[in-house]
Amino acid sequence: MGRRERRGSQTRERLFRSAMNLFRERGFHNTTVEDITNAADVGKGTFFNYFPSKEHILGVLGEVQGAKYDQAATLARAQQTRDALHWLYHALPSETGSSPKMVRSLFTVFLTSEAVRDFLTLGLATGRGKLQEMFQQGQNRGEIPGHTKAEDLALRFQQSLFGSMFLWTLQKPAPPLDAWLDEGFDFFWSGVTAAANRSKP
Question: Which among 35, 75, 127, 134 is least surrounded, fewest beta carbons within 10 Å?
Answer without folding.
Answer: 35
